[in-house]
Design brief:
The protein is an alpha+beta fold and 1498 residues long.
């Protein structure tokens, strides 16, 4: 319960005060009216006594009366019966009191922290912010003792005070009956004494004639106090004194008083400022006097205007409900007005109309013009205060003391008791409690009436008199006695009143001798409500008890009591009590914050029903502090909706828009119908706020915009394919951004830029970004081109379950023609002079705006429920400068409104529901994390994707592809065409292309490109190769062509596109042939092209432009080629064509691994070619001589060729690398492999991968040439490893050219292609298929580095240093009969295969122990020198003459010499055997053997 300004004791005391009536003569009334007051109002600010009074109780004990206040009212008579309820005027008074007491707007907000909640109260009385949960132990004592630990509710205190003072006088109690009557006569009367007599008789007639039921009088002998009023400014003071002396003689000095007033003159009025103590009292009591009821009836309507309610709706009490059940129960406080959603617009419209018509008269509650007490001085104030004190102490208190004694004596005499009732009651009730009777079934309720002289009423009178003079102990005893008597008589109304006052008296007793009997109050409230049906008395009882319970810290009991008192008969009372219950929950030791919020919602609902819309709005706002951001979306929606409506009806449209906006931007769980209602309410309120004003476009909450997801595209959207033309894919907004892909494009662009700038990438190089998003680098201003569109893709999300209709959607922008950015640092004056914007508030004409930037407008943009949709908005700049894209502007409407009937009213409603607004695009840059401040705070860098710089015109190229395949066989050659179009007004030059797969395509070399038709249609059946018809000749030697590598090579993989003149003028287009080769690996391959071009004008901000193209090629398996080489064992002198250098055999295995994909029937191997700087294929030596090589599925062919070295003068003729192409055709035509496209793809496949290796190892092809031409002989032999490798290097590239016959659509097509095999080493097999990488095994982590192992050359490699040949006759006939020794001459040929000097040792004493040599006779010996030490120069061939001696005929293996070889500079430990494994067999025949049969038989 909110804290009261008064203490609890003061509040209870002031609730029951002595009542004094006033009767004035007309002249006296005229004197007081000079001050704009009547006499009762004149005394009201001075009715609280500042000094103590004293009375004596029946036991003659002195009782001190402190802080006594009396109530003085003008006598107003009425003849109606006493009602148990307040009359309409009194209810209107209470409604006006609450309405007029509002919290101050803009007051300092105080924060009360309770746990995780922070509650703001606009209240000057809040002195502390208490963190209840964290430090409640330390602050508990302070909380309990502080008066100002929570917010006050002055409207409730004003209501409570006026309610207690306006309660009707009842017959069962006497607390608000009049005890005395002031008879006031002016001194200017002719005979004042006669006027006193008339007033006295009038009072007697009112009290005793029985004509009037009101006012009620306490005792028959009412105290009459005579007051002579003297106007100092008019009357004769001596005459007044004389009259007063006569009065003292007539009425006694204690029964009359001379009051002088109106001492102030008009001359002193200007100089002296006199305070006005009456203003704070008059507005509370203006409607209390019954003579003003009729005068104030019209003010109901004026009050209803401010609260937007009818006069009949001021309170539910005006229409008494007959059913017993209120109809308002159907509208729960938390129930949204779904059923009335359609009518809500009409309600708001009517309210809006009322608001525009006029406001409430601000002076309704003012009594009249002018201030109060205008004729009174401060001395007059003192006179009035002294008069009230004299009347109370000399007249009223003695009168009350006298009546207490009389009543005590009467009661004692009637009961027959001795001494006083006070002593007796101590004896009766001091020992213990008397059990109360059950009141659940009373015999009679409030129908029982006691006669005025009944002893029970006399006890009640005495108790009330004791209570009024603060003798609470005696009052409690009397109330307790009366309570027993009433209960025994079943007079429940009387009993409830006695219980109520007994509980209050027990609480107010000093020293607290007995605890507060709360059950008395509960019984009294239950009796008032259920038995007597008197809600007024029950409410008074509840107000007193709740305040007492709260003072004792029993907030839970107080809240329960207040909630029980809520009912449907009075919305205002229920609202106030629910609000106080909410404050009880928040002030508990452990605050119940959610209960506080819930009951504030209920209170706000009842305030709204009572017409107290400002209080309703305040309650909902306070509850919102608890429900906000807690996940209770339905409760938040209800509160925001109510706040929006109440704010709108209270002419606070800005707050209404904020509340409705909050509903729409939250993640709502409402139904679609309810969300539609919310949206319509918002649109209507928004429309009424904007009206026809020329203010800048406000922000709209719907739809939600994901600003960070905004994408910006610079340039035209690509054209789709035109007929057979396929346009380059380039960049579009339909593509998703990929970080790896972006890095790949950046790498390609770096290659292109480096090729233009002599292999160096400039320091200021920035990769071209056509599409900017939240993952790109947006730190710099992007560059756009004049007359090229800028497309901004904005992501909209509709969070509602209803459709949204957006129209006239466009971008908002600012443009600075001088190129300066309109940033925040720019002054506003500069912006207005230099910046052009398309906002509707600017004064720039539409023509000037269109001259700068053309803005595209989307007429309709429909969003389905909960849909995320992108809108692509275009701008077309026409000038250079700085463009800033600010946001979007559009019309918003609920899509369901478009389905309304096309009536006149429908059109008007539709117009009302469409509002225009904007949303800004605010994009935060990347989070900064460099400095310590950046890490401590949340800072974001700039994001300038929406701030492009418009640059001068640039060339714009489009690329189209014709006959471009999507599927190829591995190695297949296909011819396509590419078309380059310059669609801009500027010429372009420097056309280049880079690719991730440079071996996939070629434009051909100008020197070797065959003359093929340009038109794609005429080249349908033409071969992609350049061919020559040749006759099929068995054993023919290969045709040779010497080609320079520079004719095919391109620096760093960048290919210059050969267009005529290297320039493409504006509007021109050119078409070039493009040869494609299928990748060697099967599968789907993504191949990327990046085309580069520049403007013919230099010095522009954009140095170059690029165009992207991505294709996907599906590669199918074709042929698998395995090749190997071995040294020929033919003696050098037999190789007539090799000039004694020896030959090499090349074996080629070709297998058809195609699985009939694409309808391939069979493959024909039409030609085998070779390309090398040092070797060439010489002839085809297959033994079957089958030239026509056809391979069906899974068939394999084995081909054998002889390879020889190229002529030395050909290899080293120039410093430029020369390659020898040798062609061996297996058909009737020869394909020139050294021309385009065969030669191009050979160099791309064999050279480019080697040149791009990261480890820097040079290719095998170039290593030999360099070593031959640059290194001297001495240096070559220094590195043993290189010696061995170069000895075995072959460097022969095999090109297999094939044709495949395909059946497609009942047509036979011929496909052609080529495969490459690089033979690098003799004895090592090479394949056209890339070997699959096997997963590496996990290696244990080693913390200690191991020493590198010593270099040990394998024996297999060293054995290749020397090649040996034995030359001898295969058959030798010798007559062993004649000569037992047979000597056969044998020549041992030694060939140095290395490029270093080699030391050779030949040992003839070696005896072979191999199994092959043991199978033949080995009984022969070498005669002559048995060991030779020789030294062979590089590539020297030496013949050594030997003699073998045989003792008998037979077959012998001559391959027994052991040959040791080593490089000259190597130690002997590296020597190894050079013996070959193949046997050298010789047949020794005896001349006599010829006579014997072959099988040896006789």
């Amino acid at each position: 319960m909110a804290q009261c300004v008064q203490s609890v004791q003061e509040f209870v005391q002031d609730s029951f005060v002595p009542m004094v009536a006033v009767l004035c003569s007309e002249e006296a009334d005229r004197v007081t009216r000079k001050n704009n007051l009547n006499f009762a109002e004149l005394l009201r600010p001075f009715c609280r006594l500042t000094s103590e009074g004293h009375i004596r109780d029946p036991n003659n004990q002195v009782q001190v009366v402190k802080n006594l206040r009396i109530c003085v009212n003008k006598v107003v008579t009425s003849e109606g019966t006493t009602s148990a309820a307040l009359n309409p005027a009194q209810r209107l008074l209470l409604n006006e009191v609450v309405l007029s007491c509002q919290p101050q707007e803009g007051a300092v907000t105080n924060v009360m922290t309770t746990g995780d909640y922070e509650l703001n109260f606009s209240d000057d009385s809040l002195k502390a912010s208490l963190p209840w949960y964290s430090v409640w132990r330390d602050t508990l004592l302070e909380i309990n003792t502080s008066k100002y630990y929570t917010a006050t509710t002055p409207w409730f205190e004003a209501y409570r005070e006026n309610f207690l003072q306006s309660m009707p006088a009842a017959d069962h109690e006497f607390l608000n009956h009049y005890l005395a009557c002031l008879l006031v006569v002016s001194s200017t009367e002719a005979v004042p004494v006669e006027q006193f007599l008339k007033l006295s008789q009038e009072q007697h007639r009112i009290q005793h004639s029985g004509e009037y039921t009101n006012p009620k009088w306490f005792i028959p002998n009412t105290l009459k106090y005579y007051v002579l009023l003297h106007d100092t400014s008019e009357g004769d003071e001596q005459r007044a004194d004389a009259v007063y002396e006569d009065m003292k003689q007539r009425y006694g000095p204690q029964g009359c008083y001379l009051l002088k007033m109106n001492s102030r003159t008009f001359s002193a009025e200007k100089d002296e400022q006199i305070p006005d103590p009456w203003s704070q009292y008059l507005h509370k009591n203006i409607l209390r006097n019954q003579d003003t009821f009729d005068d104030l009836a019209p003010t109901v309507n004026s009050a209803a205007v401010e609260n937007n309610m009818s006069a009949a709706d001021v309170d539910c009490d005006y229409s008494t409900e007959k059913d017993g059940v209120s109809g308002s129960l159907e509208n729960h406080a938390l129930q949204l007005d779904t059923a009335n959603s359609s009518g809500s617009l009409n309600t708001l419209s009517a309210v809006n109309t009322d608001l525009k018509k006029g406001a409430r008269d601000p002076d309704v509650l003012v009594v009249g013009a002018g201030s109060h007490g205008a004729c009174l001085t401060l001395n007059d104030h003192d006179h009035i205060r002294q008069f009230v004190q004299e009347f109370t102490f000399r007249g009223l208190l003695p009168h009350l003391e006298k009546n207490i004694r009389q009543l005590n004596d009467q009661l004692v005499s009637r009961k027959g008791l001795s001494r006083s009732l006070f002593t007796a009651t101590k004896k009766w009730f001091g020992g213990g409690k008397v059990p109360e009777k059950n009141i659940s079934e009373p015999k009679s309720t409030c129908g029982l009436l006691y006669p005025p002289e009944a002893p029970e009423l006399q006890i009640r009178k005495m108790a009330d008199l004791c209570f009024l003079v603060q003798h609470y102990e005696l009052a409690y005893s009397c109330y307790h006695t009366a309570k027993k008597d009433f209960l025994s008589d079943q007079a429940m109304l009387y009993a409830a009143g006695a219980l109520e006052m007994a509980a209050v008296s027990a609480f107010l007793q000093g020293g607290a001798p007995r605890p507060y009997p709360a059950h008395y109050m509960d019984t009294a409230i239950q009796t008032y409500k259920d038995v007597c049906k008197n809600m007024v008395l029950a409410e008074r009882c509840a107000l007193l008890s709740a305040e007492i319970l709260k003072s004792q810290g029993k907030y839970s009991d107080a809240a329960t009591l207040l909630i029980k008192m809520t009912s449907e008969d009075s919305d205002l009372r229920s609202a106030l009590l629910l609000e106080q219950a909410a404050h009880c929950f928040i002030n508990m030791r452990n605050p119940m914050v959610r209960k506080f919020a819930f009951h504030m919602i209920l209170a706000g609902h009842r305030f709204s029903k009572a017409g107290q819309r400002r209080h309703a709005l305040r309650c909902y706002c306070q509850a919102m502090q608890v429900y906000k951001d807690r996940g209770w979306s339905l409760a938040e929606d209800h509160i925001n909706f109510t706040i929006g409506r109440q704010s709108f009806t209270l002419r606070q449209p800005d707050n209404a828009v904020i509340a409705f906006r909050q509903i729409l931007i939250n993640d709502s769980r409402q139904t679609a119908t309810q969300q539609g209602a919310f949206l319509r309410e918002y649109l209507y309120v928004y429309k009424s706020v904007i009206g026809a004003s020329d203010i800048s476009l406000p922000q709209l909450p719907l739809p939600c915009i994901n600003s960070s997801a905004t994408r910006v595209y610079f340039g035209h959207e690509r054209r789709l394919a035109e007929g057979e033309k396929q346009a380059a894919t380039h960049v579009s907004l339909d593509q998703e951004y990929d970080q790896d892909s972006s890095a790949m494009w950046c790498h390609l662009e770096e290659q292109l830029v480096a090729s233009v700038n002599r292999g160096i990438v400039p320091a200021n190089f920035q990769p071209t970004q056509y599409c900017l998003n939240n993952q790109t680098d947006n730190l710099r201003h992007p560059l756009a081109v004049v007359e090229e569109p800028i497309i901004v893709e904005v992501t909209f999300k509709n969070p509602l379950k209803v459709s949204l209709a957006l129209s006239n959607l466009s971008l908002l922008w600012k443009f600075s023609s001088d190129g300066t950015s309109s940033s925040k640092e720019t002054k506003t004056e500069d912006l207005t002079e230099e910046t052009i914007t398309n906002e509707e508030t600017t004064a720039v004409g539409r023509t000037q705006i269109d001259d700068c930037v053309t803005t595209e407008i989307i007429q309709e943009f429909h969003m389905s429920p909960e849909e995320t949709k992108m809108a692509r908005l275009r701008l077309l700049p026409h000038r250079t400068g700085q463009l800033n894209i600010v946001g979007v502007v559009y019309n918003l409407a609920a899509a369901s409104i478009g389905d309304m009937a096309l009536s006149t009213e429908g059109h008007q409603t539709l117009d009302l529901m469409v509002v225009r607004g904007r949303q800004n695009l605010k994009i935060l840059g990347p989070r900064l994390n460099l400095t310590k401040e950046d890490k401590m705070l949340i800072r974001h860098g700039p994001d300038r994707r929406l701030d492009p710089i418009i640059t001068p015109p640039m060339p714009l190229m489009e690329v189209f592809f014709l006959q471009f395949p999507t599927a190829l066989l591995c190695g297949e050659i296909r011819k396509a065409y590419v078309e380059f179009c310059n669609v801009s007004g500027v010429a372009l030059c420097g056309l280049r292309v880079a690719s991730t797969h440079p071996d996939f395509f070629t434009f051909g070399s100008q020197a070797t490109t065959p003359l093929t038709p340009i038109s794609p249609n005429s080249a349908e059946n033409c071969s992609a190769y350049k061919t020559l018809a040749t006759a099929l000749q068995p054993g023919s030697v290969a045709s040779e062509v010497l080609v320079s590598a520079d004719d095919f090579s391109q620096p760093s993989g960048v290919i210059e596109i050969p267009i005529d003149g290297n320039t493409l003028q504006s509007g021109e287009s050119t078409q070039l042939p493009l040869w494609l080769r299928g990748p060697d690996e099967e599968g789907v391959h993504e191949i990327n092209f990046l085309f580069y071009y520049e403007s013919t004008e230099k010095g522009l901000k954009i140095s170059h432009r690029v165009l992207r193209h991505t294709v996907f090629i599906c590669a199918s398996r074709s042929l698998s080629v395995q090749a190997s080489a071995c040294r020929s064992s033919v003696p050098p002198h037999h190789c007539l064509d090799d000039k004694g250098s020896g030959g090499t055999l090349v074996f080629v295995d070709v297998e058809n691994i195609n699985t009939s994909e694409g309808g391939v029937r069979e493959f024909h191997i039409v030609q085998v070619s070779s390309s090398s700087q040092h070797w060439r294929l010489h002839k085809y030596i297959n033994p079957d001589k089958d030239k026509d090589c056809k391979l069906s599925s899974r068939e394999r062919a084995k081909l054998c060729f002889r390879a020889t070295r190229c002529k030395p003068h050909q290899a080293t003729s120039d410093a430029v690398e020369k390659y020898t192409f040798a062609d061996l055709n297996l058909g009737n035509e020869r394909i020139i492999s050294s021309s385009t496209p065969c030669g191009d793809f050979f160099f791309r496949c064999c050279r480019i991968p080697n040149s791009q290796q990261v480890d820097g190892a040079s290719s095998r092809t170039s290593s030999i040439g360099k070593s031959q031409g640059s290194l001297p002989t001495e240096d070559r032999g220094s590195d043993i490893t290189n010696i061995v490798k170069k000895c075995n290097e072959l460097d022969l590239n095999i090109i297999i050219i094939w044709k495949a016959y395909v059946v497609e659509d009942n047509k036979q097509l011929i496909l052609e292609g080529q495969l490459h095999v690089a033979l690098q080493t003799i004895g090592k097999e090479a394949s056209s298929l890339t070997p699959k990488e096997e997963a590496q095994e996990m290696v244990l982590l080693k913390f200690k580095s191991e020493l590198p192992p010593p270099v040990v050359l394998p024996c297999a490699e060293l054995s290749q240093l020397i090649k040996t040949n034995l030359h001898y006759p295969e058959t030798y006939t010798h007559p062993f009969v004649q000569d037992s020794l047979c000597l056969v001459p044998v020549t041992l040929t030694l060939s140095n295969c290395s490029l270093a000097q080699v030391d050779v040792i030949i040992d003839l004493k070696h005896k072979s122990s191999s199994p092959e040599s043991l199978e033949v006779h080995s009984s022969f010996a070498w005669v002559g020198q048995t060991q030779y030490k020789l030294q062979l120069k590089p590539q020297e061939v030496l013949g050594l003459s030997l003699q073998a001696c045989f003792l008998r005929a037979g077959v012998y293996n001559l391959n027994t010499p052991q040959v040791f070889a080593k490089p000259s500079e190597q130690s002997a430990m590296c020597e190894t055997s050079q013996q070959t494994a193949s046997p050298a067999l010789i047949i020794i025949n005896n001349t006599c053997d010829a006579c014997w049969p072959a099988d040896g038989t006789t």
